[in-house]
Design a protein that fits this description.
Layout (H helix, E strand, L loop, with lengths): L1 H42 L3 H6 L11 H7 L2 H34 L5 H9 L6 H14 L6 H26 L2 H9 L4 H12 L1 H17 L2 H6 L23 H32 L5
Helix pairs in contact: 1-12, 3-12, 4-7, 4-10, 7-10, 10-12
Amino acid sequence: MSAFSGSHGVFWRKTLPRAVQYFLLTLMSIYILVPIVILIFGSLKTRGQMYSHPYTPPIPPYWDNYIKILTSDIFWTMLKNSLIVTLAVTAAVLVICSLAAFVFARLDFRGKDLAFNFFTLGLMFPITIAILPVYLVIRQMSLTNSLLGIILVQTAFQLSGNILILRNFFASIPFELQDAAYIDGCTPFDFFRLILLPLARPALSAVASLTMVVSWNDLLVPLVLIDKETLWTLPLGTMQFQGQYGTDLALVAAFVALSAVPAVIFYIVAERHIVSGLTAGALKG
C-alpha cells in the first residue's frame, strides 16, 4: 500500500506541474492567435460585414480587398521603401555591432569598461523618449523626408542591445584559439574576419533576425520623419484608408495581413537561428 501511495505521489508531482504548464501555454496561444484570426477574417469581408459581424468567419470570402491593395502602386512603393530601410539597417547593425563587440570582448585597452557602459546606456533610453531631440537633430542634418534619416535613427537605437548580445557570444570563444591564431601570424582583424565571424554565425543570424523584424514593424520613426506619401513604409500605409467620415477597417485588415507576411516568413525561416544565437553565449567553454 505504501509503495502504491508513493508511486501515486510521484505521478502527481510529475504530472501536475506539466499540466499547469500546458494550460498556461494554451491560454497564451489563444491570447495571441485570436486577434490574428479575427484580422484574417476581417480582411475577407466587406466593410459592412466587418462592422456588423466582426467575429464570424467570412462566408463566402471577399477577396476584393486583397485585389485592390495588390493592384495599387502605392502598396508596392511602400514595400520597396520598407525593404530598402530594413536591409540597410540590418547590414549597418551587423557591421557596427560585430566590430564593436569584438573590441569589447577580445581586446584590452584603457577605459574599455567605461566605453562599454556608455554603449549600454542606450538600453535606458527607448526611441519613444528620445524622439523629439532625434527629430531636431535629423532636421538640422536636412534628412527629414528621406529614407537615409530613418536608416540612421533605427540603426542608432538598435546598437546597444545587439552589441551586448554579440559581446557575450564573442567572450565565450576560448582565448586559446585567439592565441593560436596570433602564433600563426594572424592580426586581430584577421582573427575577427577569418575565425571569429564564421564561429559567430548563429549569433549574427539572431541579431539580423531581430533587427529586421523591429525595423520592418517600426511605425514611430517614419511617422515623425516622413511627410511625403511616396516615402512611406508599410506601417504607415494604414493612414491611406482614413477618410473624412470613417475608416475602411476591412481594407486596413487586408493591408496589415499583407504587410505582416514577409516578417512572418522571415521569422519562421530564422527562428532556429534566433534561439541558438541568443543562448549560444550563455555558457562559457
